Amino acid sequence: MSVLLENHIVELLQERNEKAISLLYENYSDTLFGVAYKVVKDEDLAQDVLQESFVKIWKKADSYDPTKAKLFTWLFRITRNTAIDKLRSRKTKTEKEIQIDVSDVYKLGIDGINPDFLDMKENLLKIDSKYKTVLEALFFEGMTQQEASEELDIPLGTIKSRLKIGLRELRKIYIEPSLVVLLICLIG
Questions:
Q1: How many Cβ atoms are within 10 Å of 99's Cβ, its own excluded?
Q2: Cβ contact 79:49 at 8 Å
Q3: Rounded to whole angstroms, how far apart are CA atoms 78 and 109?
Q4: What pTM was computed for the model?
Q5: Contact predicate 78/35, CB 8 Å
Q6: Domains of the chain, earliest start first
Q7: What tens digit of pLDDT does each residue of 71-121 get?
């Protein structure tokens, strides 16, 4: 790829011009697909990674600094990290599915449920919205922390901090801390 074309793409990205994505796809998609495929070793999954990578590239376009890395290096890192995150996410989901089969958490029965905890969604309204949003994404929408980070466009470390603080706030609402323990076990 010529330096002129690369510079043109960078300018378009920084201007948030949609032509940048078309040019990126046209010039880099095959190579980036290869990067994703090398990590995930599955064509369909590599296609998903490629698509997610282009979305991230578009969202993070203003963070690209040509003085720190070449455009391809930046694209490569985003794609590779997305592929690694996708593998980790699949592994975590698989482990959770296996865990469900052997866990007693889901075999509580009617006697094991404390009626005070059935109003959890209502009690979420009592805590700060930034913690509520994270807790809802993780517990009621079933997202992993990484998925919540991407969906809510919040750094992963912030998701973890808000989860911890949110659970602490819920603990103050409920007299029995067993719900918090149960929730922590669920996200394990």
A1: 14
A2: yes
A3: 45
A4: 0.49
A5: no
A6: 3-95 (1.10.1740.10), 103-187 (1.10.10.10)
A7: 889 999 999 999 999 988 887 666 655 554 554 444 444 444 444 455 666
